[in-house]
Design brief:
globular, alpha+beta, 566 residues, 57% helix
Length: 566
């Protein structure tokens, strides 16, 4: 096997997907298959030609079982919903809103962290002064656990599922403010929290609230202070990924670390850069995309230290194996899927694009990287967000390097501000103007006609068909050799001569898959349809008549942060 890690990661992922779709029905057959493959592999031996195939099958079956083993929630608080409880927990995150604070608290038993208990809950507090509660504090509180609200309409974003993937299953509105009984937390977590607070203090002293909120979103993925209008601009222009800490952020931290420690011996330079990468991952909350990028960056540093050139797809596969082994729930996380799809697109699609032969250096990255990322993530964006940015490629080409500059200078200013606050403010001050200029460009582009297209959610089959066709197009040069092995030389030569026509046929298949996806969501116009939508306050009524007219009654609440009518 040329890329064994890639095949093994693909097998594990496929097994987990089957387990997610079919549930417990596959567990015992998979266990029997694991035993059978183990016995067969032992008989064949490492040198046997078929050993690799048996190993791939073994990993696929292991993925089925491992996903099911991780499925049970085993929540202590879910069994106590609606009952009065007194809890002890340790604060892991504090989010400050205009009217309330939300604490993410890890459940403790007997005042200590139990390795076998990995459960968090949310605490909403009103009228509490900012800074009273902080990371690492151990608190006690009394209240009634409640389930996290679920999406009211089928197919919409489920906040409950989103939090459950982070082991948060319940929320509590305490009867009185929690009591702080001790300080705690890891040294790394305390440093990360201190850096966050210090960055907020420094930035707010040299720039406006809007610019400071955008800066913290770019640096730490914290979007709590972003205005709804700004979020719409970023979403419409396809650059909302700037606030989803992922590969680009980690790549810039990697570059900044290598440059900052360039004067040191190579082993020390690489070691300190690795520590900076790990600290940044902790700083941004250890989310799926940043974990993927962290694994790949550490593999790259390790290969450089050993004098070996890394392989992008193998590094990506290793990252998938590590993350899914740690927590299989990441597989169903949209951010995890988008991150891996974008990284795969950069690795595989950029070399295949014909423009790559004419562009070199920075121009190649500036033009081809956004195109490859957009093509690789297009069906996932349509599936999860029902919106496709038609101007996203142009917008990313224009502002990607501005966002990178904001990230680099912001990280440098925040880090130096810990030691010399005046120097930190000096570096952060110009960023307010750069952020304003970037927003001015994006706002103009967002107002262009057809900047973004709202689409219905495509079926899973349509998404799979898209990626199958894309893979076939990538491997188009290998078709003649494969066909020659099975069909003879004549068909292989024909495919080689007409490769352009075959590529066009693949494009047609992709188009048909998209049209079929759209067709599934078009209602029958010969019938009167009445749909009731949950918009948070009562029900919204959507009426579609046989004459093609649509009536919406009660679009729901509207505020500066949320518009249910959208």
């Amino acid at each position: 096997m040329r890329r064994p890690l890639l095949l093994l990661a693909a097998a594990v992922t496929l097994g987990m997907c089957l387990a997610a779709g079919m549930g417990q029905a596959l567990v015992w057959p998979a266990v029997c298959g694991i035993i059978g493959c183990g016995v067969l592999a032992a008989k064949l031996g490492l040198s046997h030609a078929r050993f690799g195939y048996v190993l791939v099958a073994w990993f696929g079956l292991l993925g089925i079982v491992w996903f099911q083993l991780a499925q049970p929630i085993n929540s202590i608080l879910q069994a106590q919903v609606g009952q009065r409880v007194e809890l002890t927990g340790q604060i892991s995150q504090v989010r400050q809103y205009s009217e309330r604070q939300v604490l993410t608290v890890r459940l403790l038993q007997d005042g200590a962290v139990k390795p076998d208990i990995r459960e968090y809950f949310q605490v909403s507090l009103y009228g509490v002064a900012p800074g009273r509660y902080a990371y690492g504090q151990i608190i006690t509180l009394a209240g009634k656990p409640e389930l996290i609200p679920e999406g009211g309409n089928p197919g919409t974003f489920s906040y409950r599922d989103y939090l459950s993937r982070r082991h948060i299953y319940t929320q509590i509105r305490p009867w009185s403010n929690p009591k702080i009984i001790a300080a705690g937390g890891s040294l790394t977590g305390k440093l990360a929290e201190y850096l966050r607070r210090n960055t907020h203090t420094l930035a707010s002293s040299v720039m406006g609230q809007r610019e400071e909120g955008i800066l913290r979103g770019i640096l730490f993925g914290d979007t709590d202070d972003l205005a709804a209008a700004d979020k719409d601009v970023f979403s419409t222009t396809g650059v909302l990924h700037a606030f989803a800490v992922s590969g680009s952020n980690v790549a810039f931290v990697l570059f900044l670390g290598l440059v900052s420690f360039k004067f040191l011996p190579t082993p020390l330079q690489l070691g300190l850069t690795a520590l900076c990468l790990i600290f940044y991952a902790v700083l941004t909350g250890l989310q799926g995309p940043v974990l993927r990028a962290l694994c790949m960056a550490l593999v790259t540093l390790g290969g450089y230290a050993l004098g070996r050139k890394g392989d992008g797809l193998n590094s990506l596969a290793l990252a998938a194996l590590v993350i899914l082994s740690y927590d299989p729930h990441y597989l169903t996380d949209p951010g995890f899927q988008l991150s891996f799809a974008a990284a795969w697109g950069l690795i595989e699609l950029v070399p295949q694009l014909s423009l790559g032969r004419r562009l070199t250096g920075m121009a190649r990255e500036l033009v081809l990287f956004p195109i490859a990322a957009q093509v690789a993530t297009l069906p996932l964006l349509a599936y999860y967000f029902n919106q496709v940015s038609l101007i996203g490629i142009v917008a990313n080409i224009l502002v990607t390097w501005f966002l990178a500059l904001i990230l680099e200078i912001g990280l440098a200013g925040a880090s130096l501000g810990l030691l010399v606050p005046a120097l930190g403010r000096l570096l952060l001050a110009p960023l307010g103007y750069l952020i304003d200029a970037t927003m001015w460009v994006l706002e103009i582009m967002a107002k262009l006609p057809g900047a973004a297209l709202w689409v219905i959610r495509p079926p899973v089959g349509g998404v799979i068909a898209y990626y199958v066709c894309l893979l076939l197009w990538l491997k188009r040069k290998q078709w003649p050799d494969l066909v020659q092995k099975w069909q003879g030389f004549r068909l292989g030569n024909m495919l080689r001569r007409h490769s352009a026509a075959v590529s066009g046929a693949l494009g047609l298949l992709v188009g048909l898959a998209v049209l079929t996806s759209i067709g599934f969501g078009v209602p029958d116009r010969h019938m009167l349809e009445v749909r009731f939508l949950d918009v948070g306050q009562g029900d919204s009524i959507l009426i579609s008549t046989p004459q093609g007219r649509v009536y919406l009654i009660d679009g729901g609440p509207r505020s500066t942060r949320f518009d249910a009518g959208k």
